[in-house]
Design brief:
7-stranded parallel β-sheet; globular; 3-stranded antiparallel β-sheet; 12 strands; alpha/beta
């Protein structure tokens, strides 16, 4: 099997030669793995860890996204991001929130709303064809749609959570603009790809570590119909839906499945209900899981033997498909290299066979961008 055949067969629960793998790590961790093996670029890294997915994207041609004197960079909705430094690495964090404190529609600056025609889609099919059917092709990111976190980066999390309860008209206007922007960009990608995109990726962190972030009533009122319309559109092109959700989202899964979700990414096992064996019992015959290898516990603090045991448990739970194996988020700085390698070695023999062919692959993708969801 090649990677795409493996992924689609696992998606259809028809068996596989090995479990499909989807890698995600911070740039610092990717650099660590590449340095260990003497790799030169991200494509070599993906080959070595056995990643079965590849991402394509349109070319941004919209208004200049400014860089400001303090080093912050502008996002699509006028928000700004700046790196927060910590020991061993850095993360982009929102530092300017253009919609914060706005309570009336007449005060809302809609010039910050992006449009789908800010992108050139003419290379989409060519990007897909470059992989020659060898890999499962994805488009979008975990930051697309993202009506809670994404809007909070331009408005503030506390304000967004209050907006969802009191139906604030400003929030609802931003939410609709965000929906239309991502719906139309994704539709344009699917049209341009001519059937070659396998999975469309969006996200919304509906849960905290211990339970739902919003009520089912709020989800039904503000989220369900938007996602149903989006899922229906994706399916109309013969593609599949993948939704990133951090936290405990157990209670939302039946409804999301009902409205058309195919793949649940990233499966955080932070409560008993969210343990992978319990989720399989709950809805495992109706949805595909992606992730489930915990970056907060075993991968970060366990032993290589414990990591291998976690992988082995998943191989036994999903012998014919139903799970794409990977971390529960980007593998974080400080995670032991031996644990990361143990996960991929147990799941795939590719990491043991670093051939001259792999080392000769050329790729101009920035390792800092690989598998990292856009914040914009």
């Amino acid at each position: 099997m090649n990677s795409r055949q493996r992924v689609i067969s696992a998606f259809e629960r028809k068996g596989y030669d090995r479990i499909p793998i989807k890698h995600e790590a911070t740039p610092e961790v990717n650099h660590m793995i590449m340095s260990h093996f003497g790799l030169k670029n991200p494509e070599q890294l993906l080959r070595v860890v056995g990643d079965d997915f590849r991402y394509i994207e349109p070319v941004y041609i919209g208004p200049e996204l400014k860089t400001f004197p303090d080093g912050s960079v502008e996002g699509y909705f006028g928000e700004r991001y700046k790196y927060a430094q910590f020991q061993g690495g850095k993360y982009l964090e929102a530092c300017h929130l253009p919609f914060a404190g706005i309570r009336k529609l007449e005060d809302l600056n809609r010039s910050h709303f992006p449009k789908a025609d800010w992108f050139d889609y003419s290379t989409i099919k060519q990007q897909c064809e470059k992989f020659d059917g060898q890999y499962a092709i994805c488009a979008g990111t975990a930051g697309d749609m993202d009506f809670i976190n994404g809007i909070a980066r331009a408005r503030g999390m506390e304000e967004v959570l209050m907006d969802l309860i009191d139906d604030n008209e400003v929030y609802l206007e931003i939410m609709q603009a965000r929906f239309e922007f991502y719906y139309n960009t994704h539709k344009s990608m699917l049209q341009a790809a001519d059937g070659l995109i396998d999975f469309m990726h969006v996200g919304d962190d509906l849960g905290t570590q211990l339970g739902p972030m919003i009520s089912m009533d709020v989800f039904e009122k503000h989220f369900a119909q938007k996602y149903k319309k989006y899922f229906d559109m994706v399916h109309s092109f013969g593609s599949r839906t993948m939704m990133h959700m951090c936290g405990c989202v157990h209670d939302f899964l039946p409804r999301l499945i009902e409205i058309g979700l195919d793949v649940y990414d990233v499966v955080q096992p932070t409560t008993q209900a969210m343990q992978i064996e319990n989720l399989k019992e709950f809805v495992g015959d109706k949805i595909i899981f992606q992730g489930s290898m915990c970056v907060q516990s075993t991968l970060a603090w366990g032993t290589a033997e414990q990591v291998e045991a976690d992988v082995d448990k998943r191989l036994k739970l999903f012998p014919d498909g139903g799970l794409f194996l990977g971390p529960t988020h980007a593998i974080q700085v400080g995670s032991p290299l031996e644990n990361i390698l143990a996960m991929y070695r147990k799941a795939s023999s590719l990491i043991e066979n670093i051939t001259d062919e792999i080392l000769s692959i050329k790729d101009d993708t920035d390792v800092n961008e690989i598998n990292m969801s856009k914040l914009f």
